[in-house]
Amino acid sequence: MNAAHDELKHDAAAYALGVLEPAERAAFEAHLGSCAECAADVRQMRLAASALPHTVPQLSPPSHLRERILSAHQPRPSIDGPRRVVTPEKGARLSWLQIAAMLVIGAGVFFYAQRMQTRVSNLEAQLRQAQTLVAAAERQTLEARNVAVRAQSAMGVFAAPDVARIDLAGQAAAQTARARALWSRARGMVFTVSNLPALPPGRVYQVWVVTAQAPVSAGLLTPDASGGGSVYFETPVDILPPVAVAVTLEPAGGVPAPTGAMYLVGKPSPL
Amino acid sequence: MVIWLFAAVVGFQGRSSDSQAEDQRSLQRAASGDSGGLAALYDRHGRGVYSLAIRILGDEGDAEEVTQDVFAQAWRRAAQYDESRGTVAAWLLVMARTRAIDRFRARRVRPEGRLQEDDGLTLQQLPATNPDVASEMMAAERGQRVRRALDGLPFLQRVAIELAYFEGLSQREIAERLEQPLGTVKTRMRLGLLKLRDALVEVQP
């Protein structure tokens, strides 16, 4: 029960946001019925989630949208009203001239309709292309924001009053590897590495801040082709001061506590 | 000072429950086939629904269609609205979010250019665990403050919440997108939501 609670309580946020996967959701709901603590968490978090739609910039919809929505839901006029049946007058004959005029007009309408259809499908294709571009641009914006915030955060570490330097030395698995971490309790950690061996498939390097209590994961690291790289990690504010920083090889996606071989390790020294 | 605070809070509540009562009257009119009820609902919530759809889809045409769908659904299902599950405003916004994310997923293209298969993750509907209607209405009143609280969160906390709420990504998908361990994503989401909630219940000075 307690072990289940310790694991499941971390799903309360995703549950409140409606994004648990079906199996996770079933497990969480089963637990929720018997756990007052998680039920209270979910209530609180749902309250926060219900405010999220109100945080988006408010934009006025175009005025034609109101008409479109309301005209689709007008009370339907009765179909069985008085109906006039139009019967052609007997004896009225179409002249040759009228028939010829109708043929000409008919042909004109036919060609016009064809041309319009071509234009519409061209426009549709352009629209689809534009939508794809917009989606790509949105993703790039998110990535750029990501990069910008990381860069800003990294600068914050360099300038932090409590910045500490930790030089890491390569271990048996990677004797030529070197790394340096600049660590600030309040602003996070900048980590620069060189000469790490290429990652085996399905593996990733994980960086650990080793505290007096336990190693805390700082994040994952995928080096570039030369085995180098520089990353910024946001570390929890309530973390204990590090006694060491280490890098291990772990399964892709990372693990909650180190399991693999240690590649780099080092202790803090005054800057 | 204390009296003023009290008056401010009661004022918030009073105004919000008035608009909820008004919404319910409009919805009842719609349920009985009176399109004036739908017009009143649209005039009060069309902007909110449309803005949420734009935020999720980033496209005006798509957002218009989602908005139209939401009010069509409200018209059809007006009689099924259940106040014990939340306000009318929240009901409309949940429909808007669900439909917009469904549409977003349907058109999402992977970077490799392959159309993404349905990942079997269906956005769950609003869970019905003791909704606190009064507080939820307060939430609507305080969008600005939550916006500021959201902007003030550490990067990971904010982005994890935004990806879950506005893109409907699961924790696993968020971990992949942000290149962070799953456990980190879970704790950041939790911390962030609890902080937002704190910002929501603080009494305005």
Explain what the structure shows:
By secondary structure, chain A is α+β, with helices and mostly antiparallel strands. In chain A, 41% of the residues lie in helices and 22% in strands. Among the domains of chain A are: 2-51, no CATH class; 164-269, Sandwich (Immunoglobulin-like), CATH 2.60.40. In chain A, strands 1, 2, 3, 4, 5, 6, 7, 8 and 9 form a nine-stranded antiparallel sheet that branches. In chain A, strand 4 (203-211) and strand 5 (215-221) form a beta hairpin. The radius of gyration of chain A is 33 Å and the shape is elongated. The model of chain A is unreliable at 76-91 (pLDDT under 50). With 205 residues, chain B is an all-alpha fold. Chain B has two domains: 1-111 and 133-141, RNA polymerase sigma factor, region 2, helix turn helix motif (Rna Polymerase Sigma Factor, Chain: A), CATH 1.10.1740; 143-205, Arc Repressor Mutant, subunit A (Orthogonal Bundle). Chains A and B meet through helix 2, helix 3, helix 4, helix 5 and helix 6 of A and helix 2, helix 3, helix 4, helix 5 and helix 6 of B.
SSE diagram, text form:
The complex is a heterodimer of chains A (271) and B (205).
Chain A: H1 2-8, H2 12-16, H3 22-32, H4 36-51, H5 63-71, H6 96-158, E1 164-170, E2 178-184, E3 188-194, E4 203-211, E5 215-221, E6 229-233, E7 242-251, E8 262-266, E9 268-269
Antiparallel strand pairs in A: 1-2, 1-8, 1-9, 2-3, 3-6, 4-5, 4-7, 7-8
Chain B: H1 2-31, H2 35-57, H3 60-77, H4 88-107, H5 133-141, H6 143-152, H7 155-167, H8 171-178, H9 182-201
Helix pairs in contact in B: 1-2, 1-5, 2-3, 2-4, 3-4, 6-9, 7-9, 8-9
Brief write-up:
The complex is a heterodimer of chains A (271) and B (205). In chain A, strands 1, 2, 3, 4, 5, 6, 7, 8 and 9 form a 9-stranded antiparallel sheet that branches. Chain A has helices at 2-8, 12-16, 22-32, 36-51, 63-71, 96-158, and strands spanning 164-170, 178-184, 188-194, 203-211, 215-221, 229-233, 242-251, 262-266, 268-269.
